[in-house]
Design brief:
Layout (H helix, E strand, L loop, with lengths): L11 E2 L4 E2 L1 H18 L6 H4 L1 H7 L9 H6 L14 H6 L5 H15 L8 H29 L1
Helix pairs in contact: 1-6
Length: about 150
């Protein structure tokens, strides 16, 4: 990564012609992983899994070792993206990531409660100032159109 600090297009499909709340949930997991990596990946005896790699040997599969499985979620804690091995995934119901994302969308829509705005008066003052500025600009535009007629 080159230091990106703003992510654009979360939840967008078809170059922004449509939007998917499920895609937004999946994008959120991906962004979480990117932020983790951007902050640096810790390398130590536990995370490098040297013993497992040595014991399994060159050219063999160390991905299913207990050490690898215990470290698989270190890069992030995805809410939706499933990292279970295939047998565990099947036992959990074999749901695709898009289905899990949809379940999360439904849960959020049904249960999310927003926090009240702490300083509502300040927010209302900002809105009033913007509305007043818009009205003045609109009046100037109207006046210039009237003068042209």
């Amino acid at each position: 990564m080159v230091g990106t600090s703003n992510v654009y297009g979360c939840g967008m499909l078809e170059l922004g012609m449509s939007f998917s709340m499920e895609q937004l949930i999946l994008d959120n997991d991906i962004i979480g992983m990117i932020r983790y990596v951007k902050g640096g990946v810790e390398v130590n005896p536990k995370t490098i899994a040297y013993e497992s790699i040595r014991d399994v040997g060159i050219g063999n599969n160390f991905l299913a070792t207990m050490e690898t499985l215990s470290n698989v979620d270190l890069p992030s804690r995805p809410l939706v993206l499933d990292r279970h091995m295939i047998e565990s995934w099947r036992k959990e119901g074999s749901k695709a990531d898009a289905e899990l994302a949809h379940d999360r969308v439904v849960e959020i829509l049904n249960n999310h409660e927003t926090e009240p705005i702490a300083n509502r008066g300040l927010v209302e003052a900002v809105i009033k100032k913007a509305d007043d500025r818009f009205r003045r600009l609109q009046a100037n535009i109207d006046a210039s159109h009237t003068a042209e007629d």
